[in-house]
Amino acid sequence: MQHSEQLLDLAARDINRRDAEILLAAAWQRSRAQLAANSADPVPPEVAARFAADCARRAAGEPVAYLLGRREFWSLEFEVNPAVLVPRPETELAVERVLALVTAQDARVADLGTGSGAIAIALAHERPAWRVTASDLSPEALAVARRNGDRLVAGRVEWLSGNWFTPYAQRRFDAIASNPPYIAGDDAVLQGDGLRHEPRLALTPGGDGLGALTTLINGAPEHLAAGGWLVLEHGTEQGKTLRDALVARGFAHVTSHRDLAGHERVTEGCWP
Fold this sequence. Notes:
The chain has 272 residues and is of the alpha/beta class. The protein has helices spanning 4-11, 17-28, 32-37, 45-59, 64-68, 92-101, 118-126, 139-152, 200-203, 211-219, 239-249, and strands spanning 70-73, 76-79, 108-112, 131-136, 157-161, 173-178, 224-233, 252-258, 264-270.
């Protein structure tokens, strides 16, 4: 029977050492700190078998979050599976911007293309009095979002099925936020480690990657209250294009914000 340090050394030949530690801790129901403090403990055979299977899947490019079935976002633990994107730290910038821009106590806010529900649930968690609505085209994604909502902010998010503005006839909001698909259809990153296992519909609209962002910019004015905000996550090279599009559509106070890596990642505009 091997001890944990031996298993981690073997796994580190094929995958990142940190990933190996996370997977072994999950398989053994221990923390990484416990693994380090008890590195000479023999690993039970059933734990070693699960760990080996998970490492093989990780070596094939499957995200750690899918292997664990969970991912932390905004200090909340979200269920994730291959029906939804893995929530990423840069998306927290979109949450931060909505919280900074909208001051009404009873604001109406929508999250379009919600995926796992990350943006909507984070907003509802921070502002319990807000009326938060979220939608997604994918029934499988919406099911994941509903489960996350029931567990984290029960009863505080309204979930709707449909593509972009289709579910929102005659409805207006103080803010609309979205992390839409924005990767160009021929971008090699789609075949890279991790992304090739995530839902393609949530990653790229095809073409130059701007299709969904353009739809949101053009359609948002019909669903924003006066002074309402559109907050969009986007690719690192798309900021100027989106600023120009927002200004051309009639938005004011158009600004882009940089993520922790220094890349323009979120662009916002106010409907006069």
